[in-house]
Amino acid sequence: MRRQNKIHLALSLSLICMLSCTVRKANVEPKIADYSNEGYQLVWADEFEQDGMPNSKNWTYEKGFVRNEELQWYQPENAFCKNGLLVIEAKKEQKPNPLYTQGSKDWRRNRKNIEYTSACVITKGLQSWQYGRFEMRGKIDVNNGLWPAFWTLGVAGRWPANGEIDIMEYYKGKILSNIASLGKDGKPKWFSETKAVKELGGNAWAEKFHVWRMDWDSENISLFVDDVLYVKVTLTQLQNDNKEGLNPFKQKHYILLDLALGGLNGGDLNGTKFPNRMEVDYVRVYQKEN
Questions:
Q1: Residue 252 has what pLDDT?
Q2: What pLDDT, on the 0 to 100 scale, is given for residue 23?
Q3: Which one, of 127, 233, 122, lies nearest residue 180 by Cα?
Q4: Which pLDDT value is given to residue 31?
Q5: pLDDT less than 70: residues of the chain
Q6: pTM over 0.70
Q7: Which family does it belong to (predicted)?
Q8: What is the bridge-based pairing of β-strands 120-122 and 60-61?
Q9: CATH number of the domain that residue 75 is part of
Q10: 41 occurs within a structural domain
Q11: Residue 227 within a domain
Q12: Residue-range definition of the domain harbouring residue 193
């Protein structure tokens, strides 16, 4: 009798698992959108279906302390695929900083210890595109000090002359859509729009998956969140303000996905719990035939 009850229990648990998995699939794995009526065809995608490390044909990694005086040390092991999602996990863990140099004024070298780790996965040297519809479905945490992003950089030139497009960026309570090229003073010139997460629904909004999208052609760059247009900039406005006068958005760009912490813009972590995650359901690129 006890064995029979165990069998019934096992069957019930299996059924619950199957149902929950089905619900999760329905929630986080929608069908690939058909944009053919707008002339777009899918040319590349990563659906993150295979558990383990991200596909090495699509993604490589930034490593160490990279930019913006951020707190995290980037390492590949903080990015992994599980249950059809790419997970970028930020951890609070202490380890010696291999770059540490006593007395150094360089922010990368004057930290004796690494206090946080995270990951930044990039398609640099593997996948890049000029023009198209770039789309990411993901879920981000909006607690203090977190700085997740889905963005692109031009393959040629030094920043900001190579161009930057922040399709999704969050910090200090705001969703940001940004485009940058080189300004007259040698600094980036930004075209930006922001939206307070409170206006979108706060934590309830952040608990759901959302779609961030860029439409980029030879005339304009338009950035959307859940099909709502946030910013549209003409490419003529994005010309670099230097003697070369090149346009960094008339070249191929590669994709970056990361979860940064603190730094120049991220703010104070203020009790944010770790480990913390950014979850990505898919990244897709569509292009028109011509």
A1: 98
A2: 41
A3: 233
A4: 74
A5: 1-30
A6: yes
A7: Belongs to the glycosyl hydrolase 16 family.
A8: antiparallel
A9: 2.60.120.200
A10: no
A11: yes
A12: 49-288
